[in-house]
Structure formats: structure tokens, C-alpha cells
Design goal:
The chain is about 50% helix and about 5% strand. With about 160 residues, the chain is mainly α. A two-stranded parallel sheet has the order 1-2. The mean pLDDT is about 80.
Length: about 160
């Protein structure tokens, strides 16, 4: 089915027979990131028109599940991890270690494809940034975000997420 693939192609664009064939023969990889970090990244990239992080979060909460933006939509609603058996789930913050294993499994040279950053630097930077941004939010916004992303927090081991109880 490669002739029908583009970067924007979604699985829903194929018929059931094609979907079953692809899911049965492709190596399925899901890249996941703490939902709060995804929000910060989206805000920092200027994808929202809000002047502050707190107002951006409120815009996200107000748009709810009906938003068309994949930048902040819960991963569970985008990737259906309960319906699709992924071969690999790669956690942001552990990219170097997990990508190395994935590349090795695919028979590719590990060192030539991995980014130069270290996972420790990335985790420290996002931990510090998350702490700063989290302080801007009201208690109600924090509770609403935890509820909004409750299924992501249950499905993936975001143990250090600011949204975890």
C-alpha cells in the first residue's frame, strides 16, 4: 500500500481488508509524550494565539475533545492503543535508549541515526519548564487538565507528569 501513503495519510482512509493487512505486517511504533509537555511545546511554538500559558490552557480546555488539533488532543483518542497492538511505544525523554533498540531490531546501524542530545538534558529542561508553567495555572485548570488527559495518564507511564495525582 505504499503508493497511497503520504505524510498526512490516516488509517481510516483505507478499507478494513487493507487495514488488517497493514496492521498485521507493519512494525507499529507509537511515540508518546507527557500531555503537559505537549501543551508546553505547542504553546512555545506559537500554535495558540493566547498571550499567556494559562489562557492557552483555558482555550484548550474550552475546545475540549471537539478540537481538531492533534497538538493537544489526548493520545488515546488519536492512536487507539487499546485497539492497535503496537510493537513499540517510544517515550519522549528516553528517545536515545528506545530508538537504539528499535533501530537494532530493524537491522539498521544504531549510532548513525540517533540525535546528539542526551535524554538527561531533555528531561531536566522539560522538568524545569513544566514546573514554571504549572505555577501559572489555577487549581481548577490543573484539575480540568488531569481529567482531560485522564486516559493518557492511565494508558502510559507518565510517572513524573505534573498532571498525575
Amino acid at each position: 500500500y505504499p503508493w497511497r501513503h503520504t505524510p498526512e495519510t490516516q488509517l481510516s482512509e483505507f478499507n478494513l481488508t487493507e487495514i488488517e493487512a497493514m496492521l498485521g505486517s507493519y512494525t507499529k511504533v507509537l511515540f508518546v509524550r507527557d500531555p503537559f509537555q505537549r501543551l508546553i511545546s505547542t504553546f512555545m511554538q506559537g500554535m495558540g494565539s493566547s498571550p499567556s500559558f494559562s489562557s492557552f490552557v483555558q482555550d484548550v480546555l474550552d475546545s475540549g475533545q471537539h478540537s481538531t488539533s492533534v497538538a493537544w488532543k489526548p493520545l488515546v483518542s488519536l492512536c487507539h492503543p487499546c485497539l492497535i497492538q503496537y510493537d513499540y511505544v517510544v517515550m519522549f525523554g528516553f528517545l536515545r535508549q528506545e530508538l537504539g533498540h528499535l533501530l537494532q531490531h530493524a537491522g539498521l546501524p544504531v549510532d548513525s541515526f540517533l540525535p546528539e542530545f542526551t535524554d538527561t538534558q531533555v528531561r531536566w529542561t522539560y522538568s524545569w519548564l513544566s514546573e514554571q508553567m504549572f505555577r501559572e495555572l489555577s487549581l481548577q485548570q490543573k484539575k480540568q487538565l488531569s481529567h482531560f488527559y485522564r486516559w493518557d495518564l492511565a494508558a502510559f507511564p507518565f510517572s513524573s507528569s505534573f498532571l498525575s495525582d
